[in-house]
Model the fold of this input.
Amino acid sequence: MFGLGVLMHRHFELGGWITAQPAHPKHRGYVRGWRHGVYREGPYVAAYGAGGGKATVDEIRAAKRIDWSTDHLRLREALPPAFTAPHIRVAPGFDGATWLDLGRNDGRSVRIHATGRDVLTPDPQEVCWRRTQLTGELPLPAKDTNG
Done:
């Protein structure tokens, strides 16, 4: 989720309104540790409990990108900043690129990187746009005519 090294399934209170449950993202592999008598390696750490291959404090901090706590219980319960970071117009990408929201209904945005730019729809695990009534649509960038 959001490119983090931890999976978190949570129910959020929405203050009297409801919305459809978002699609469940495909996992990139197993959670590291013992499950059902089998030890597996994987890109995720288990940020709950202790023992049996569960994550250490340092592993949870790295997986959730949290640097302000060293308390195991608090870290296990903490929401990573990525969960609460919708972006308005500009957002950092996972690989150092920068995203620009064009405010389009089809979701296409500009991904600006070291070798140029691309117009595409970002993966919702990487970028989540926040739009208001004042978010207008920007034009698609002109095609490069210099070769």
Remarks:
- The longest strand covers residues 109-113.
- The CA atoms of residues 110 and 119 lie 5 Å apart.
- The chain has a mean pLDDT of 82.
- The two ends are 38 Å apart (CA to CA).
